[in-house]
Write a structure and sequence with these properties.
The structure is a homodimer of 362-residue chains. The first copy, chain A, folds into three domains: 85 residues, 3-Layer(aba) Sandwich (Rossmann fold); 61 residues, 2-Layer Sandwich (Dna Ligase, domain 1); 171 residues, ATP-grasp fold, B domain (D-amino Acid Aminotransferase, Chain A, domain 1, 2-Layer Sandwich), CATH 3.30.470. The model of chain A has no long low-confidence stretch (mean pLDDT 95). In chain A, 52% of the residues are buried. In chain A, strand 11 and strand 12 form a beta hairpin. By secondary structure, the first copy, chain A, is an alpha+beta fold. The two termini of chain A are 37 Å apart. In chain A, the strands form three sheets. In chain A, strands 9, 10, 11, 12, 13, 14, 15, 16 and 17 form a nine-stranded antiparallel sheet that branches. In chain A, helix 1 packs across helix 10 and helix 4 packs across helix 5.
Chain lengths: 362, 362
């Protein structure tokens, strides 16, 4: 109760991308100063922050100076090196904490955590050798997905295996790294829940959005998701359970596969992201408190804000050249444009997003 | 149509206070860079802006350098010196424009403008001498309010006259400046409308909020206002007429007195503010598009956003020591805290505000 961080305090953020930018904007609206730490000279987040440190994530001298100037440290990407997080946490509170980060960074540890807590996942096996892989393919069957345990995002570091004979090719393809084989889940759709927990232990989940990907990159999130009402509550409860069991502090994205035919486990956890998440951008315009404000509230141990959805909403990412359409998109009714002020619209690069609202169907 | 300012452009803002801060945050969310010009070394707005120029408003060398670096210029306070605005407008678009600013800066010009457009105001008279004042008091009657024509805000530069014999004292009190005498309007309440106009001529008004002042400073704005439904539309239409007749570009606050007993003119315009306005802060949490985003849309000639109110709302200013209550306020349900990150909570100083939402009564 008494460790609430007061407005005027300084929030340190590792990472200078669009998520850092939107976190910094939310923090500033609440009266905080922000301090961005990232290696890049120019970054979307640094543009809106009061303080900037340019440094490598392995540079403990710069990291220590940064930590000395802030009151709490958070991050906008889950691939913060474990050593960096551990070092910083000896100096200032790092939220979400080192343990939660370690779980989310390793697909195997994450899956084992889910299993230990009775949460359904795809069938999976630990893969350290080609022998492990061929055995696992026999056990789990095909099709299956081989994924590196670490540093995967937006479809990177993973490959689909359609037949046992493709094992060696797949093993080469992911670079013979410590990996996990996941059985194919015949899902109808992907949904995701953003859940927040503060260090007081309060929990607050937003209702699930339904995600559609293009080229392995999130394309749209639609809320409400096209799932039965009881599953909305189930998804939110599972997300809250994960956050509570991890002693998580901050906001977390939980992705689920929806398997309508599966009576006992119609929702299967795909993965978690220990940060604000692209699939939660709809909250910026459809809720009083966005995922960005909620994350800042959580890491400052403020009471969490309401998660009620005030409108129906479709969030659409603007990837690469999509952004040239900004002028057309703007003319749709009830459309909010969120842009990251990145200089170059490279293919596959997230440049911005729009939220299109319609009155909430009752 | 074609002069829409693209995301990535740079928006120059004169003034470093909380209104500039919230404008800069809204602009950044839409992908703009911001550039604050103000005399202060440290300011709430500069903290969140990508670029800062510290300079006097009369320093044409610095102003010219600033203008050269931005694509459009706006301001957060109406007392921008006319000469500054005129100088800048020879270099870059200044929005709202010089003519609108000149009208809003002079209470007499403003009242004459309203009269010329058939918009009801309090009875008033131009006062240049003590003789003018005594004559006007005979014509208009008492009580009446003597106001300087320029540079009044939050009750400053004005004095109430209860009897003809107090004329000389009042004249001394306001410093014998060019002034206006306004007859007393027996109003039941003050309401205000925020209206936006872009250079394409599109108009969008928010519905009126009801304002309560304490010590001449806005205390709360409650929406919906406690007025009959037809008056909501009337107030919005008057505000739109003013914006259109002024060829206004940006957002404008229009304050009205509500006089329930007056059949022909139940709404009397008190004054206009050529900028985002404290009485529009409720839009941040109760609407998809806030007055700050709307202002940026308008000055960039974007399509204006929806002004639909999604919730009922009470905005409360945190003045001086009120801010010490932040911790308690946060615990109210559906409360958003907006803080300006000012170092010292001096008496009368606006430190932040809260918006408390309740579901919209149908």
């Amino acid at each position: 109760m008494t460790d609430r961080l007061a407005p005027g305090s300084r929030i340190g953020i590792l990472g200078g991308g669009q998520l850092g930018r939107m976190l910094a904007l939310a923090a500033a609206e609440m009266g905080f100063s922000t301090h961005i730490y990232c290696p890049e000279e120019m970054s979307p987040a640094a543009e809106v922050a009061a303080h900037i440190t340019r440094g490598a994530y392995e540079d403990e001298t710069e990291l220590a100076k940064f930590a000395a100037q802030v009151d709490v440290i958070t991050y906008e990407f889950e691939n913060v090196p474990a050593k960096t997080a551990e070092f910083l946490s000896t100096l200032k509170p790092v939220r979400p904490g080192v343990a939660a980060l370690a779980t989310a960074q390793d697909r195997l540890v994450e899956k084992n955590f889910m299993r230990a807590n009775g949460i359904a996942t795809a069938p999976y096996a630990q893969i350290d050798t080609l022998g492990d892989l061929t055995q696992a393919l026999r056990d789990i069957g095909t099709p299956a997905i081989l994924k590196t345990r670490r540093f995967g995002y937006d479809g990177k570091g993973q490959t689909k295996i359609d037949a046992l004979g493709d094992a060696e090719k797949a093993w080469q393809e992911i670079g013979q790294q410590p990996a996990i084989l996941e059985g194919f889940v015949p899902f109808a759709r992907e949904i995701s829940v953003l859940v927040a927990r503060n260090s007081n232990g309060d929990l607050a989940a937003y209702e699930p959005g339904e995600n559609v990907h293009l080229n392995h990159i999130l394309h749209t999130t639609t809320v409400p998701a096209n799932i039965e009402a009881p599953l909305v509550a189930t998804a939110m409860a599972i997300a809250e359970k994960i956050a509570a069991q991890l002693n998580y502090v901050g906001i977390m994205g939980v992705e689920f596969f929806h398997v309508p035919g599966n009576e006992t486990t119609p929702l299967v956890v795909n993965e978690i992201a220990p940060r604000v998440h692209n699939s939660g951008h709809w909250t910026q315009d459809a809720c009083q408190v966005s995922q960005f404000e909620q994350h800042i509230r959580a890491i400052c141990n403020w009471p969490l804000g309401p998660t009620t959805r005030l409108s129906d909403v479709v969030m659409t990412n603007l990837i690469g050249d999509d952004v040239d359409e900004w002028d057309v998109l703007l003319s749709s009714p009830n459309t909010s444009l969120h842009m990251y002020n990145k200089a170059q619209a490279r293919p596959g690069r997230k440049m911005g997003h729009i939220n299109q609202l319609t009155p909430r169907a009752l």
